[in-house]
Amino acid sequence: MTHRFDTAAPGDRTAPRILTEAHELVGAAARAFDRDDYARTLLAECDYRLREPLRVALAGSIKAGKSTLLNALVGQAVAPTDATECTRVVTWYRDGATPTVTAHAADGSRANVIVRRGSGAHGLTFDLTGLNWNAHSPREVDHLEVGWPSAALSQTTIIDTPGTSSLSREVSLRTARLLTPADAEGDRAAPISVPGADAVVYLLRRLDATDVSFLEQIGAGAGGAGPLGVIGVVSRADEIGSGRIDALHSARDVAARFAGELERTGLCQAVIPVAGLLAFAASTLRQPEFAAFEALSAVPAEDLGVALLSADRFARADIALPVAPELRAQLVDRFGLFGIRMATMLIRLGVRDSSSLAAELAARSGIEELRSVLEIQFGQRADELKAHSALSTLDRILAAYPGAEADRLRPRVRARLADVHGFTELRLLGRLRTDELPLPPPVLADLHRILGGAGVAAHLRLGLPADSDLNSLRATAFAAVRTWRARAGHPLADQSTATACRAAARSAEGVLAELPR
Question: What is the pTM of this model?
Answer without folding.
Answer: 0.81
